[in-house]
Each structure stands twice: as C-alpha cells, then as structure tokens.
Design goal:
The complex is a heterodimer of chains A (120) and B (876). With 120 residues, chain A is mainly α. In chain A, 50% of the residues lie in helices and 12% in strands. In chain A, the strands form two sheets. A three-stranded antiparallel beta sheet of chain A has the order 1-3-2. Chain A has a two-stranded antiparallel ribbon with strand order 4-5. Chain B is an alpha+beta fold and 876 residues long. The model of chain B is unreliable at 74-85 and 486-492 (pLDDT under 50). In chain B, the strands form three sheets. Chain B has a six-stranded mixed β-barrel. Chain B has a six-stranded mixed β-barrel with strand order 13-14-19-16-18-17. In chain B, strands 12-20-11-21 form a four-stranded antiparallel beta sheet. Classes of the chains: A mainly alpha (120), B alpha+beta (876). Chain A binds chain B through residues 10-13, 27-28, 31, 43, 45-55, 75-77, 79-80, and chain B through 17, 20, 24, 27-28, 30-36, 38-39, 58-59, 61-63, 66, 77-81.
Chain lengths: 120, 876
C-alpha cells in the first residue's frame, strides 16, 4: 500500500504515530507520551485515542503488539499494547517529510526564524 | 488514590460513550473508561481541583462533541480537528459574538432572567402545593368527609355503615395546656385509632399508641419530632415520662418520625402533641361536632360510591335525629360530601395559584418579546456583517445555526440566573407564610423544577431569538451590501419590531387590567366598615384556666379585666371568645341558636358571650340603647345587645330595646342595638347576632380574647404580666394589635394582590421600555431622512406628532387585543380576592389612564430626540 495515500495525517494521528515510533505502548502510555511532547496543544481524550487507534489499525498503520511481559495484575488501560506496522513507519516518515517541505516553504517566506514563528 | 467526584464523572462519561457505535464500545469501551479514570486521577494528583476539572472537561467534552457529531451525522470523525470545528463552530462563534457585546447580552439575559425567575418561583409553588403528591401512603385514595365538623357518634356510625371506606379516622386540632415548670400552650390534636395508619405515621423513638390503649382510661400521647427537639432538647428520657396536660397525666410513649407531616386538612399545620381520643368520654355526643373525618377508600371503591353511602347515612340521620340533621321540611340538612384529601387541602388556593403562574408566564412572554426586539434591532445593525459572510459563501443554514446558538446560550445563561432568582423568590414566599398557604413546607426549587427551568429557559431563548435569527439570516447579500456601501438608503422593514411592541402591549395590558381589577377588589375589602374602631386596640388571647371549674373561670376573667383596666393608659377592656376577624370561617366566636320575640322567631342567630366593656374597648357603635354593665351581667334578668341586622329581622328595627326575648327556655332582655361587627372577616356578610354576658352563658369555654383600648395601649410585656398576676392559672398565648389581627385576616388576598401587581407593574415597565427603545432606534436610524425633511421645511411639531401618533397607535392596538383576551379569563380573578368585579369602571378607567400615560411617556423621549435633530449637522 502506498504510504502517500494516507497523507495528510491529522495532528492527532501524527502524534500518536510519532510516540509509537520508538516502542510499543499501551493506551495510557500513548496519552502520557503525547502530553509530554505537546503539553496541552493537542488535546487527546481516552475515547478519541481509542477511536483513532481503531481506525489506524483498520488502515494497517498500527497493529496490536505483544505485551513485553505478562504482569498479571495490570490495570485495564495498560494491558493492550500497540506498535507501528511497516506501512505505519513509512506513513509517519512520509508525513514528517511533507511537513518538513512545508516548513521549508514557510522559512523561505521568512515566516519562521530558527524554527520559531514570527508573530510580529 | 481516588479523585473526588470521580464516580459521578465516570457515570457521565459512560452515558456519553453509549452514544458511540456499539462495535467501538464492545472493543474499547471499558478500556476508555479505565483510561478516563486514570486521567482524572492524574489530573487530581498533578493539578489539584483545576487539574481534575480539566481532565474531566476534556474527556467528557470531547466525547459529547463526538457523540453529537455522530448523532447529527455531520461529518465522520477522521481524527481531523477541521471536522470537529464544523460542529462546534456555531457555538464558539456565538459565544464570541456575545462576548463582544456584553451590554446587549447582559440586557437580554437580565430581561429573560426576570421573567424566568418569576415563572419558576410560581412554578415551584404550584409544584409543591398542587402537583406533588401528599406524603402519605397511597394518598390518592384518602378522602375527607366535608360539610363542617362531625361528631364522634357520626364517625363511629360511618366506620360500620360506609363500606366504601377501608379505614376511617377522626381527628381534631386543638390547643393543650402543658404544665411543667411553667404553664404553656402546646398545639396538638386528638385522634381516633386508625389515624396513624391512615397517614402512615411512624415512631422515631418509642412507639405509637396502640388500639387497646384507647378507652382503657390510661392516657398516652406522642410528641412531634420538632417539638421534641425544640421543647425537650431531644431528651431521650422524654419517652416514658408523664406530662401534665389539661390537668391530667399523659404518658409520652413515643416521638413521631421527623418526616411525618400532619394532614393540615384534618388536624392543622403544626401538631406538637397527639393524644388518642378516649371513646368513653361522655361529652362525645352528637352535639359535640368537633372532628374532621378522613378515610381510605377500600379496594375497588370509588369516591362516587362513598358519596352515595354517606348520603344514605345523612338521610338515615335526618329520620332518626331530625333536630340535628334535618331542616324544617324533614329533609337532610347535612350532606357529608366526600372530597379527596388533596382537594380538601389545596382546594381553596389551586385556581389562585394557577392564575398567578399564568401571570408570571405572561411577564416572561413580555420579557421574551422585549429581548426579541433588542435582538432584532441588533440583527438589523449586523446586516452588514451577515451579508458579507453570505457573500463570502457562508450558507444561510450556518448563519441561522449561529444565531440560534446565540439564542440558546442567552437562554441558558438567563435560565441559570432565573433559577438563582427563583431560589431566592421561594425563600421569600416561604418566609412570608402568605395567609397560611397550605403545604408551604413542600415548596422548594428541586431537580424537577430545575429541569422545567431548563426547558422554559431554552424555550424563552429560542422564542426571543427565532424571529430575529430568521430575519437576519434571510438577508440578501447584494441588497445589504448595496445599502452598506452608502448607496440608496432604503427604508428597512420595521414591522417586525412594531409587531413585537404591540404584542408586549397586549400582554402587559392583559396583566395590568386584571391586576387593577384585583387591586380594586382588595381595596374594597380593606375599606369594608368593620363595625369597630381598631386603632389603639390590643388583642390579648388568654386561656383563663382550661381545667378550672366554671365559676373560677368567670372569676379569673373578671380579675384579669379589672387588672388590665387598672393599667396606666388603658381606657377600656372587654373580652369575648374572640375578637372580630380573629377567626375566619369557624364558629369559635359563638354558637347558633333561635331567638324569639313574642310570636316572631328567628331560627338562626349567633350568640356571642362577651364581658362588660367589650363594645367600648372595640369601639362599636350603638344605634340605640347601651351595653350591659357589671351589675346587670351578674344578676337580674339576663341583658343582651343585638346587632342591627337581627333587630331589623326581629322587630323591623323598631322599639326592641327594653323588651323581653326568648332564647331556648331562657328569657333575656334587650338593652341595646349595636351596628353590625364583621366577626368573620371583611369578605363575609354581617349575620344576625346578639351578645350575652360571658358569666351567664359562656363560661363553658376558657379561651378568651381581651380587647384593650389605650392611648397608647401598654406594651405586650406589661399586659402579659398583668394577666399572670391577676390569674395565676391563666396562659397568655398571643398579644397583637387589633390592626394586625385584621390585616392578617386578609394576608392571603394581600399576597395575591401584591404578586399579581408586581408582575403587571414589571410587565408594564418592560413594555414601555420596549416601545421607547424601538422608537428611539427608529429615530436614530432615520436621522438622515428626518434631517432632510426638516431641511426641506417640515415643522418639528409634525415630526413629533407622527412619532408619538405611531407609537400610540401600536400600543392602542396591543391594548385592545389584551382586553379581548382578558374578558374570557377575568372570572378566575374571583379566586384571588372575593368579590372582584372584572369590569369595574374604576379599574378600566385606571387601566386606560395608565396605558395611555405610559405610552405617551415612552414615545415622548424619542419624539424629542427627533425634534432636536439638527438638519445642518446631519446634512453636512
């Protein structure tokens, strides 16, 4: 499947895929990781997260992963792990490249300096 | 660690999840909930209350948005914030717009909140008094036998002869004298067996009296929870103690449950001590009619069946005891009409409360119309903005959605404010205790009322916002842009706002004319000649000794009278069973009998036992003759004073003084004729009455009210002390100025009148402000045109006349509509104040004057503004 078919990604999906790029994570882990990286910029709530995961799985971008080890008494929100598929990895890379190109355009238009928006 | 309020938030979250597809819920539902719970806890741990709130709002808010999106089918969620915005957009946009115009938003919210507050307050009263079921088991099947009070033998008879009743109970509200360290009065009731089970009373401490304790000669009683706390400080040792009540020992066997509400149609509102009736009491004969009787309909029995069976008993009684139960023709004089307990409790006030609710709703409608005209004017002003948005491709639907969202937001804000106002309103009404309005304890602003408020508020917001929204969204971009660019200045439509003003005028007129008729009726009630001069009179209610022998009571009454008369500043003192206006509807002032003069007989005349000094103290007016004095009252032929009504009936009003009349077996001598005194209140007619010395005919009763005339009368403490010094066994239960007694007799009518008047006055103000505002806006909008006209030589006077004339015409049309709507409704006003004449000329004239005056005033300011237009300034 062509990764470009899935572009552009919504910011929410992009962030989910980004945090999954390192390691498989459970729902709670994804929520925490997204929050860590963006603060409050992209609000992610539980059901939204799972809806996105469901869709991303259907599209073959994300798959359910084996838990690292069976901890037994693990809370529900930490039982199921998710990771990127090969397609997923390609999609997130393609999206990053697309954003990169866009950012370059913005910089050439002198809207960005050193990666920061010029507000004045 | 759990977060506070976590469970509530989770319940809400689960509810919202239910709106999502089932497949999703199956797969991820529980996981979502677990994760939501986790974020709540994290939020609480990291950010305290704020963090918690943020987590809750984010979770629930996002879910609500997603759910609505799904339900409305507006765009599938593809995780794109762009789609999220498409639904939230009208709301965010609406909130932003309103935020930018705080004055307008505040005015609209204030207006609607006023109407909603009034409506919800009345709604709470109607809900608490009329709609909520009574707090008894299966209350719909409890029935009260009306037609006055009944005797104990009546009640006993019905328990056996009226099978339509499964349980039957008799009760009588009364005042007990309680002797502990001091003597005191205690409100209470005597009840038959069956009372506690009929009304589902349970014991909080101890137990209820049992059936076999009745008639055993052992006297037991239960106290109310409130009295137990108030009087005995919640002392658990009260149960088992013996109290001295009316001179006899009564053992307290229990404390009633705190949620037991005495059935006020049967006993009275406040009942602190309940003592079972002793059925062996020889005084309980057919003459002693003092019981209210209530029963539960047997399974399958109907009110109709009970009515038939009771009517059959009335006929049987009339045959067996014609003296007491039959009229002259031998047919039953009593009906024993059964009515539902609800009807018996609230029947007197139900229509009045509904009329007041209707009044408050009219006020709300006026407020809606007012808010609508504000929004309409604003809509006209916003045409430019809206046209630009249309021209740029904004669909009409999305504009409409935004405008309606604005209306909803305004309605919701007004609803919240109105709910707060109603909360205050209900507290005020409960504190006022308007004329013993029944079931006041059940009146609260609760979830039911809050739910209703939400609906009312949204309806009000939409009502106020719908027309302006439609109008504004219907705008044609090309036309408006042309107008806005300063091209042809067309005459924009003003018919909408004129129509609103006319509607306001109609609604306010409806309220105003009704209110004026009620005010007029109330004034007439107040102006009724009471037959006494109440100023300077203090009424002192005293029990001169319930358990004392009759001679002692007479002596105590006399001692009290002498002692009070000796106080500095006291001009006259006299006592009767009650003072005028003190008892309404009952017969506690007197009893009825037959009075005969030679061959002429009056078969219904009220006999009032009073002490010498009674007429002087109250300031009654003698038509002929005089009052009886102490010597006459004590010995010789019994002297009486008759009122003018009785004198006319008995002797054509001529030569009655000095003659002998017969009262049953006794011979009495008429010493004077007095002008009629209205004992039962201003709305009741003066009946034939006569007054007889207390010590001759009245000492069977120990409750007296002393009228003390003074200039000024001594203070309450001095009066109480004097009574206690004169008669140690006496108990003073109340000291009130006579004017208070009279005004509290009209408390309910006054309450209705004030409330309706307040609704009408506010509606009038709003309508006038609406008219004024609309005209002002009109004049400002047409400044240019007016300036041109004046420059071309139009006299300012003509402009003023045109504006005033237009305004008056609108109001006149509205007022006519209001009057048309008034006539069919007017008869219900009788329920507020008896004797109201809906078409009273004074009320109608007042209405015309007030409407015309307000309309003139409301048009004058805009007209002045127009006349003051400086053509030069405008044309330049």
């Amino acid at each position: 499947m062509d990764a470009l078919e899935h572009l552009p990604l919504s910011p929410r999906d992009f962030l989910i895929l980004l945090v999954l790029a390192d390691d498989p994570l459970h729902g709670y882990g994804i929520l925490k990781a997204v929050e860590e990286r963006t603060g409050d910029e992209v609000p992610l709530d539980p059901a939204n997260l799972y809806r996105s995961l469901k869709r991303l799985r259907r599209d073959g971008i994300v798959e359910e992963a084996e838990p690292p080890e069976d901890g037994g008494d693990v809370p529900l929100e930490q039982r199921r792990y998710f990771s990127l598929t090969e397609t997923g990895r390609a999609v997130v890379a393609a999206e990053a490249a697309r954003l990169e190109r866009l950012t370059r355009v913005a910089r050439e238009a002198r809207l960005l300096e050193e990666g920061r928006a010029v507000l004045e | 660690m759990r977060a506070p309020g976590e469970e509530g938030a989770v319940v809400l979250y689960r509810l919202l999840l239910r709106l999502l597809p089932r497949s999703f819920r199956r797969e991820h539902g529980e996981e979502s909930v677990a994760l939501f719970r986790r974020t709540l806890r994290d939020g609480w741990r990291e950010g305290g209350g704020r963090g918690l709130a943020r987590a809750a709002l984010r979770g629930a808010g996002e879910e609500a948005r997603a759910a609505v999106r799904r339900r409305t089918g507006r765009g599938r969620d593809r995780g794109s914030p762009r789609h999220g915005r498409s639904l939230g957009a009208p709301w965010t946009q609406a909130a932003r717009t309103l935020h930018r115009q705080p004055a307008l938003a505040g005015a609209v919210v204030g207006l609607l909140a006023l109407g909603i507050g009034a409506t919800v307050t009345m709604l709470s009263v109607v809900d608490g008094v009329l709609l909520r079921s009574l707090p008894y088991p299966d209350p719909g099947r409890i029935v009260v036998v009306t037609d006055g009070s009944h005797s104990w033998p009546d009640y006993r008879d019905w328990t056996e002869t009226v099978p339509a009743f499964e349980t039957l109970a008799a009760a009588t509200g009364m005042t007990f004298t309680l002797e502990e360290e001091r003597r005191d009065e205690l409100r209470g009731a005597r009840v038959s067996d069956g009372f506690f089970s009929l009304f589902g009373a349970t014991a909080y401490r101890g137990r209820l009296p049992t059936a076999d304790e009745l008639g055993s000669g052992r006297r037991v009683g239960v106290v109310s929870h409130a009295a137990w706390l108030r009087r005995w400080g919640g002392d658990p040792r009260l149960v088992g103690r013996s109290l001295r009540v009316d001179g006899e020992p009564v053992e307290v066997v229990g404390v009633l449950s705190p949620d037991f509400v005495p059935p006020e149609a049967v006993t009275r509102r406040a009942v602190d001590l309940v003592i079972p009736v002793d059925p062996t009491d020889p005084d309980l004969d057919r003459h002693e009619r003092s019981f209210a009787v209530a029963g539960r309909l047997a399974g399958g029995a109907t009110l109709e069946r009970a009515r038939e069976q009771l009517r059959a008993r009335a006929e049987a009684f009339a045959r067996e005891y014609p003296d007491q139960y039959a009229d002259e023709t031998g047919s039953p004089a009593r009906t024993f009409e059964p009515v539902s307990l609800m009807e018996a409790t609230t029947g007197e006030v139900d229509t009045a409360l509904l009329v007041l609710l209707a009044g408050a709703s009219l006020l709300l409608l006026v407020a809606c119309a007012n808010a609508a005209s504000l929004l309409l004017a604003r809509g006209t002003a916003r045409r430019g903005e809206l046209a630009v948005r249309r021209a740029l491709g904004g669909g009409r639907g999305s504009l409409l959605a935004q405008l309606l969202a604005e209306a909803c937001l305004l309605g919701a804000a007004a609803g919240a404010a109105g709910l707060a106002a109603a909360h205050g309103g209900v507290r005020v009404i409960r504190a006022l205790e308007p004329g013993d309005l029944p079931r006041l304890e059940a009146v609260t602003v609760d979830v039911r009322v809050a739910g209703a408020t939400l609906l009312v508020a949204l309806a009000a917001g939409l009502l106020a916002g719908a027309v302006p929204a439609w109008r504004a969204a219907a705008v044609s971009p090309a036309r408006v842009l042309r107008l806005a660019s300063g091209g042809a200045r067309g005459r924009a439509r003003t018919s909408g706002s004129r129509g609103l003003v006319a509607a306001e005028a109609a609604l306010a007129s409806l309220l105003l004319v009704g209110s004026l008729a009620v005010v007029r009726g109330f004034e007439e009630l107040v102006a009724v000649a009471p037959g006494i001069r109440p100023a300077g009179v203090t009424a002192v209610s005293v029990d001169v000794g319930r358990d004392a022998p009759e001679e002692e009571r007479a002596a105590a009454a006399e001692a009290i009278r002498t002692r009070l008369a000796a106080l500095a500043g006291v001009a006259a003192v006299g006592a009767g069973f009650s003072v005028p206006y003190e008892v309404s509807g009952g017969s506690r002032c007197c009893w009825a009998g037959e009075l005969a003069l030679e061959d002429r007989e009056m078969d219904w005349i009220w006999a009032h036992p009073v002490t010498p000094g009674y007429f002087e103290a109250l300031g009654a007016t003698f038509v002929e003759g005089r009052a009886f004095d102490d010597a006459e009252a004590r010995e010789g032929p019994t002297p009486i004073v008759v009122n003018d009504v009785a004198a006319r009936e008995l002797a054509g009003g001529d030569g009655l003084v000095g003659r002998a009349v017969r009262f049953g077996p006794r011979e009495l001598r008429v010493v004077g004729i007095v002008e009629g005194i209205r004992h039962w209140g201003a709305d009741q007619p003066v009946e034939p009455e006569f007054y007889v010395p207390y010590r001759r005919e009245g000492t069977w009763r120990s409750g007296l009210t002393f009228a003390v005339r003074g200039a000024p009368a001594p203070g309450g403490d001095a009066l109480r002390r004097a009574v206690e010094e004169a008669a140690p066994r006496a108990i003073v239960s109340a000291v009130r100025p006579m004017t208070d007694v009279m005004s509290s007799a009209l408390a309910r009518e006054r309450f209705y009148t004030l409330l309706l008047g307040a609704f009408a006055g506010t509606a009038l103000l709003l309508a006038a402000a609406g008219l004024s505002g609309t005209l002002l806006y009109d004049v400002r909008r047409r400044r240019h045109e007016l300036g041109v006209r004046m420059a071309l030589g139009a006299p300012a006077g003509r402009l003023v006349r045109r504006i005033v004339g237009g305004g008056l015409l609108t109001v006149a049309g509205g007022a006519a509509l209001g009057l048309l709507a008034y006539w069919p409704l007017a008869r219900h006003l009788q329920e507020l104040v008896p004797g109201v004449e809906p078409g009273h000329p004074v009320a109608l004239a007042g209405f015309a004057a007030v409407i015309a005056g307000s309309a003139l005033l409301a048009t004058w300011i805009p007209a002045r503004l127009a006349a003051g237009t400086d053509p030069a300034a405008i044309l330049r």
